[in-house]
Amino acid sequence: MHLTPLGCLAGMPAGGLASSGYLVESSQTSVLLDAGPGIATRLSALQTRRLSAVFVSHEHTDHILDLLVIGKRLLADRLVREDENAPLCLDESVPRVPLLLPRGATAKLHTLASLYPVATHPLLDQAFELGFETHEYEPGETLAVGDLSLRIEQLRHVAPNCGVRLADAHSSLVYTGDTGVTDELVDLASGAGTLLAESTLRDTDTSGHGHLSSSDAARAADDAGVTELVLTHFSSPDPVQHRWHRDRAASVFDGPVGIARPGISHPVAAPRKVLA
């Protein structure tokens, strides 16, 4: 597998960087993790094949807002005309893309799409019916997408948030979404290759909102025995701040520590080998 960050910021885009969105690709499968503001444009620039699925960790705007844009693009790929005067119709040979959502999110997304109708082409208003095939997952669920397995577990955030573990025969990646310190993250990431972890704060969250500092992420990586840690979801676009977080994490976790760099593909690590 390969990981390509499309954005890396908490909150809204800044400094030319998009919010949360990460493309994970195997030889057969392409999964988008979250779709915050700016991700649709980045995806259109870097994507080389049709998505196999989209996973959304939770319903905050910096993780979900571009879903309508991406859905309309997927729908447009399914629409054809027999000639320039014919109405738009569906190409049934092009499948819908599975959209994996938290419970209750589908109805809200339908409401969002309905706010901006295209009266002359009603099909264009059905991104979440005809572009995506929605599935509301449950924590603890494991799904198969192409040659990848996706294990979904609830973590700790002010909005219900699930992390996800993607695995193929050779490597595995765990993505936190947004979470505070929790044993559930260590369990989800246990023995994984790459931990893609939010690094929003400089110090441990005491507010109950649910975010990690770089030190928190590093301790989770160490406790879980992952091969490598990749930090993301930064509160600033300043690369100096990103390096500060990397250096701080490296003082806690003895494996490789990287920074999510939008547009730069990164091989997902194999699980760490334990010497007998």
Question: What can you see in these coordinates?
Answer:
It is a single chain. The longest helix has 12 residues, at 239-250. Helix 6 crosses helix 7 and helix 7 packs parallel to helix 8 (239-250). This protein is 24% helix and 25% strand. The protein is α/β, with parallel strands linked by helices and 276 residues long. The model has no long low-confidence stretch (mean pLDDT 94). The chain has eight helices and 16 strands. The chain is globular and about 65 Å long. The chain has a single domain (2-267), classed as 4-Layer Sandwich (Metallo-beta-lactamase, Chain A). A seven-stranded mixed β-sheet has the order 8-7-4-3-2-1-16. Strands 9-10-11-12-13-14-15 form a seven-stranded mixed β-sheet. Strands 5-6 form a two-stranded antiparallel sheet.
Fold topology:
Layout: E1 2-7, E2 21-25, E3 30-33, H1 39-46, E4 53-55, H2 61-64, H3 67-76, E5 79-80, E6 89-90, E7 97-101, H4 105-114, H5 127-131, E8 132-136, E9 142-145, E10 148-154, E11 162-167, E12 172-175, H6 183-189, E13 194-198, H7 214-224, E14 228-232, H8 239-250, E15 257-259, E16 266-267
Parallel strand pairs: 3-4, 4-7, 7-8, 12-13, 13-14, 14-15
Antiparallel strand pairs: 1-2, 1-16, 2-3, 5-6, 9-10, 10-11, 11-12
